[in-house]
Amino acid sequence: MTSLKLWYFPTRGRAESVRLMLTDQGKQWEEVTVTGQTWGTLKKSCLFGQLPKLEDGDLTLFQTNAIRRYLARRLGVYGQNEKETALIDMMDESLTDLQAKYMKLIYQEYESGKDKYLQELPQNLARYENILSCNKGGFLVGSQISLADYILLLLLLNHQVLSPSCLDLFPILKSYLDRLCSRPNLKAYLQSDAFKNRPINANGKQ
Ligand code: GTS
User: Could you report the per-residue pLDDT of 146-184, keeping only the tens digit for each?
Assistant: First the structure.
């Protein structure tokens, strides 16, 4: 991997699970923060008119999940064999679905949909509590951290802001979250101003 450059807006948003993975794996990257002023021009050069964008030498990638999977393969956090990789993909797809629901709430129906979202949240979280209770390896799949754990970590962090008590019924998820947050590189990053001062979402809702 050559020098990495990540373009995104000044929020956690979709890019944060990439940042968490790179941070945890001790990989440096250059962050290019795209503001309203620079976005107009840059948008025209983006393959699908959207961010995030990753550059790794002569490779330019768009689409968050393609970026995440590319990096996970390169960093060795995409399973120890093909079966684990398939299971990681399965977890990852389900978590991407949950992230899409979360983004819909934040950007389209925060006022009208929050009560229903919070009512349904326990049944969504219960699935991951169950998955973690069945996998004695301590992660979503196998015995090593993977691509899927970083998106679950991000979703748990965001949901704890949305609903601070949301993990009270889920001791396994809570201790999983504590364990991930105490991994040395992640711990330092989560305590950094770079993380703490970055808004979760572009519209200020959280
Ligand atoms: N499927 C794409 C991905 O996962 O990368 C969606 C990317 C996307 O929708 N990006 C939004 C964007 O570039 C920002 S965000 O949804 O991640 O917050 N919006 C600006 C625009 O002009 O469309």
Answer: 999 999 999 999 999 999 999 999 999 999 999 999 999
The residue whose CA has the least distance to atom 14 of ligand 1 is 51
Choose which residue among 33, 51, 103, 108 to substitute to test ligand 1 binding: the one with the highest number of ligand atoms within 8 A of its C-beta. 51
Judge if the beta carbon of residue 43 lies within 6 A of ligand 1. yes
- What pLDDT digit, counting tens, does each position of 38-80 carry? 999 999 999 999 999 999 999 999 999 999 999 999 999 999 9
Global confidence as pTM: 0.97
C-beta of 50 in contact with ligand 1 (< 6 A): yes
| Helices of type H across 46-196 | 64-75, 82-108, 110-134, 147-162, 171-181, 184-190, 193-196
Separation CA 147–CA 52 (nearest Å):
17
3-state class (DSSP) for residue 82: helix
List of domains in the chain: 4-76+188-196 (3.40.30.10), 82-183 (1.20.1050.10)
**CA–CA dist 115, 77 (Å, integer):** 36
